[in-house]
TrEMBL record:
Coiled-coil portions: 307-334
Organism expressing this protein natively: Notiomystis cincta
UniProt xrefs under InterPro entries: AH/BAR_dom_sf, BAR_SNX7, PX_dom, PX_dom_sf, PX_SNX7
Any GO CC annotation of this UniProt entry: phagophore assembly site
Family: Belongs to the sorting nexin family.
Entry annotated with the keyword ATP-binding: no
Record's protein name: SNX7 protein
A Pfam family: PX
GO molecular function, one term: phosphatidylinositol binding
Length: 393
């Protein structure tokens, strides 16, 4: 997805205007084909008597006619992103809404409000908004426009106009529970295949996510041991005059390999782990979307059954059935289009991520191998020099 190609050229301490910020990002399909640019950057910490939270600047540049201005700059906190996601789900129940980073992303690996945590979340929020901006339907959602343009007090006022969070949660729970209870009699084969696909996908992506976290933990343990292992050889060299140079050489090799390992860990935490976690969340989202589609189907099936058992009010039931048939068709068409789009993006993301991991692994092992080969070659030369000097009379 070209819109997600990000260049890490922002400095949190240096404000950037929306007009100049678009020059900091590169788009493979060219800016002339895009009419909405969004950047999330410049995190700020806020401490009150009640809570501590982070806000992010959301800078937008657009050429769309429905916007009153071509440039906007607002500050949003995490709960504002949550509100946007819930409004999108409410307005488009059978579209695939991109996932948000979890409340505590990579829990146990980074501390909340640490620089690493904030930067990881910033990137995820940036991706979330750009995935919406690239979506053919979600990008024109009115709540999305308000999120990008309204000042804090305006957004707060707009939030109060809709149903509360608990009300929305209750609706979601009831819909899911109803879909579980009701048997879908006339589900099209395509959506049965989607359900089967997602069950398998969910199992595999969760397993990959667990393995990736285990690999990261092993890399971190190895890195911590190497940090202690190198200095030992340096201390040892002080008491072994005859092999001091060799011991210092080993310490130097360990130090270089330690730095390479640290770089390798950074690649895993910045590229592999976030993508796998994102698609773990996507698997949950897709299962929810399929259940909501089934719920619409169940409503239609129940009305058809009721009509078959009723001898009166047939005209009223026929009208309701007609509306439900249109609703099911719209839901099916929306989900089918989104499904194809999601699978294409997913396959591209997974393929490029694992290709990147493989290339980083090759560079890492080649760098470590070259380090030790160079050291061994130097020891071989020194050994030959010593042997020649001993052979001389």
């Amino acid at each position: 997805d070209p819109s997600l190609v990000e260049v890490n050229s922002f400095s949190p301490s240096v404000p950037i205007s929306p007009s100049s910020m678009t020059n900091q990002y590169q788009f493979e399909d060219g800016p002339e084909l895009r009419d909405l640019f969004i950047v999330v950057d410049d995190p700020e910490s806020h401490i009150t008597a009640i809570e501590t939270f982070i806000t992010y600047r959301v800078a937008t540049k657009t050429t769309r006619g429905e916007f009153d201005s071509s440039e906007y700059e607002v500050r949003r906190r995490y709960q504002d992103f949550l509100w946007l996601k819930s409004k999108l789900e409410e307005a488009h129940p059978t579209l695939i809404i991109p996932p948000l980073p979890e409340k505590f992303i990579m829990k146990g690996m980074v501390e909340r409000f640490s620089d690493e945590f904030i930067e990881t979340r910033r990137k995820a929020l940036h991706k979330f908004l750009n995935r919406i901006a690239d979506h053919p339907t979600l990008t024109f959602n009115e709540d999305f426009k308000i999120f990008l343009t309204a000042q804090a007090w305006e957004l707060s006022s707009h939030k109060k106009q809709g149903p509360g969070l608990l009300s929305r949660m209750g609706q979601t729970v009831r819909a899911v529970a109803s879909s579980v209870r009701g048997a879908v009699k006339n589900r099209p084969e395509m959506f049965t295949e989607m359900n089967n696909y997602m069950e398998t996908f969910s199992q595999k992506i969760n397993l990959l996510n667990k393995i990736a976290h285990r690999i990261y933990k092993e890399e971190r343990d190895y890195f911590n041991e190497m940090k202690e292992y190198g200095p030992i050889h340096t201390l040892w060299s002080a008491s072994e005059e005859d092999i001091a140079d060799s011991l210092k050489g080993i310490a130097s090799c360990i130090d270089r390999c330690c730095k390479a390992t640290e770089k390798q860990m950074a690649g895993l935490s910045e590229h592999l782990l976030p993508i796998l976690q994102e698609y773990v969340l996507y698997s949950e989202i897709l299962m929810g979307v399929l259940k909501r589609r089934d719920q619409i189907q169940v409503e239609l099936d129940s009305k058809v059954d009721a009509l078959a058992n009723k001898r009166t009010e047939k005209d009223l039931f026929s009208e309701e059935i007609g509306k439900l048939e249109d609703k099911v068709e719209r839901a099916n068409n929306a989900l089918k289009a989104d499904w194809d789009r999601w699978k294409q993006n997913m396959q591209w993301d997974i393929r490029s991520t694992f290709t990147n991991v493989a290339e980083n692994n090759l560079r890492y092992y080649e760098e470590c191998l070259a380090t030790w080969e160079s050291f061994l070659a130097s020891q071989t030369v020194d050994l030959h020099v010593d042997e020649d000097s001993e052979d001389r009379p």
